[in-house]
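Hello Y.,

Per our agreement to keep a running log of every chain we model this quarter, I'm adding this entry. I've kept the format consistent with earlier entries: sequence first, then predicted structure.
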Amino acid sequence: MQILIRWAIGAVALFLTIQLAQVVGVRGLAVKDIGSAFVVVLAFTLVNALVRPIVRLMTAPLNCLTLGLFSFVVNALMFWLVGALKIGLTVNGFVPALFGSIVLSLVGGVLNTFVPEKNEERKRRD
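Predicted structure for the entry above:
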């Protein structure tokens, strides 16, 4: 059940990120509809689980050299990669990908604070 809630939160966070990008004036980010947002979040999950560890390993020296700031670039590249899959997310350029990845992680983090962890749910029941 908690996986479905986090999946829904991810889709809402993505949809809010796209809306915020349009308000702020960042051109080049779009999602087809909320249904596509669910598919895109699933793709994000797979890309972050399969591709991101390899990219982070290959860019570890650069990440050390920049004191961790290159992680923003890696996150933007993962965002851009999901946009390139053509499954409902449009990302036109690196700057929209960077904006989208930063705002998505912030919005998702804020929304996920409202979902209790599994251990917290067990403690409440006991």
